[in-house]
Each structure stands twice: as C-alpha cells, then as structure tokens.
Amino acid sequence: LKLPSDFTNEISKMPVEVRVKLNEGGITQGHVDQYGMGWSAKWQRFIIPVYRDSERNGFIARYFADEDLPKYITRYKDDSDLWTYINPPTVHLCDDVAVIVEDMWSAIRVSKFCPSVALLGTEMGDKCLDRVTNEHDKFMIFLDDDNYTVKRKAVAIKDRLTMVGKRAIIIHSGGTDPKEFKDSDLRKILEDARHELLGTVSHT
Questions:
Q1: Nearest-CA neighbor of 190 among 55, 77, 96, 105?
Q2: How far is the first Cα of the chain from the last one, in angstroms, to the nearest whole number?
Q3: What is the widest separation between alpha-carbon atoms in the chain?
C-alpha cells in the first residue's frame, strides 16, 4: 500500500487534464490535502487513498490520459474490502440520513450536506453494511444511475438495507454523479429526497 516516491498533493503540479477533472468534480486543494489525495508522474495516475478509522486500507489510482491503459488500479489489504465513510462533525443539511455513492469525490461533495458512504464501486460488502447500519437507520442511495446494471445494483443495496430493518430510498439522477452537480443543485436534490424518505416507508 506504499504510495509512489514522487507523490504530490499540489494541484498546480498536476497535468491539465487532471486539474480540469478536479475542477469539474468540485474538488479543491483543501479537499486534496484533507483526504491525502495526490498525483504521481511516475505512475501517471491520480491517487485516492482510502482510510477507515485513520488507517489506510488501500488506494485507487485513476488514469486520465488517452492511451489504452487500465482506467483504475486498486490495491487494498487482504482482510478488507474497499469503501469509506465520511461523517463530518457538522453538516449543513442532515445528520440523520447517510448517502451512499459510488466514488470518493462524490462522497466528499455530499459530505458537505450529509454523512456519506463511498462504495468505490456499485456494491456494498458485508463490512460496509455492518458499519453503516450501526451508525444510521435511514439511507439515500445516490449512484450515477446511468445504465440498467447500475440501477439493479442500487435496488440490490436498497434491498439489503431494508432486510436489516433500515429505511432507504433511491435517488434517480438521470446518469449524473453527485460530484457533477453544483452545490446548490446537489443540496436541493438531497433535501427533496430526504423529505420523501422521512415521509414514506418504502420507495423503489
């Protein structure tokens, strides 16, 4: 799990295509510093370490250029699955509902308003399910909703949560990741979904 020797947190030293993606995702230098993310010229990848309880469990290295190379390299401990939970001391919208998203940048953006869970994929493992259901009773599932497979994954997550007695709702975003929304739009989507969740027992 060792990071490359040329790892840097400074956005100004990253290639323009990476800086553009960070800007489009609403990820600032403050976010990069806070979550220990960075760039490796040696690997030609943006690296997202995954921490739980202050321990690094793994990382995702994301490729942004045009060559025919794997988009992601993922490494993690043998005894762990890769996900992370972000629950800031103060959130602006809710602390009673956790939002389940696919990727780290979306989780960072959502955590401005609600506690967030980054699946780092589209499936919820047993350890993740156990942890987040010990923390919360209500959930909003906010995957990028861009194809039938992802829609099925969202329903599967909802079913797992409801089977253990939790309330859950799926946010249908029309194929847009949470990180791609402006803060004002993201807040409105979460606020509307929370009202719907708290006012009903079951939605699909």
A1: 96
A2: 39
A3: 51
Token output for 8: 């840097």
113: Cβ contacts below 8 Å, ≥ 6 apart: 91, 92, 93, 94, 186, 187, 190
Q: Specify the amino acid at residue 184.
A: S
Residue 147 binned pLDDT confidence (cut-offs 50, 70, 90): confident
State how far Cα 32 lies from the chain centre. Answer: 14
The single-letter code of the amino acid at 1 is L
C-beta separation of 56 from 133 below 8 A: no
Measured from the Cβ of residue 134, the count of other Cβ atoms closer than 10 Å reads: 7
Q: How confident is the model at residue 196 (pLDDT cuts 50, 70, 90)?
A: very high
- Rounded distance between C-alpha atoms, residue 190 and residue 6, angstroms: 38
User: 82, 76 in Cβ contact below 8 A?
Assistant: yes
Measured distance CA(27)–CA(155) in Å, rounded: 29
SS3 180: helix
Q: Are the C-beta atoms of residues 81 and 61 closer than 8 Å to each other?
A: no
How much is the pLDDT for 193? 95
Length of the chain: 204
Amino acid at 42: K
Mean pLDDT of 81-105: 89
pTM of the model: 0.91
Q: Are 100 and 117 in contact (CB under 8 A)?
A: yes
Distance from C-alpha of 178 to C-alpha of 71, rounded to nearest angstrom: 20
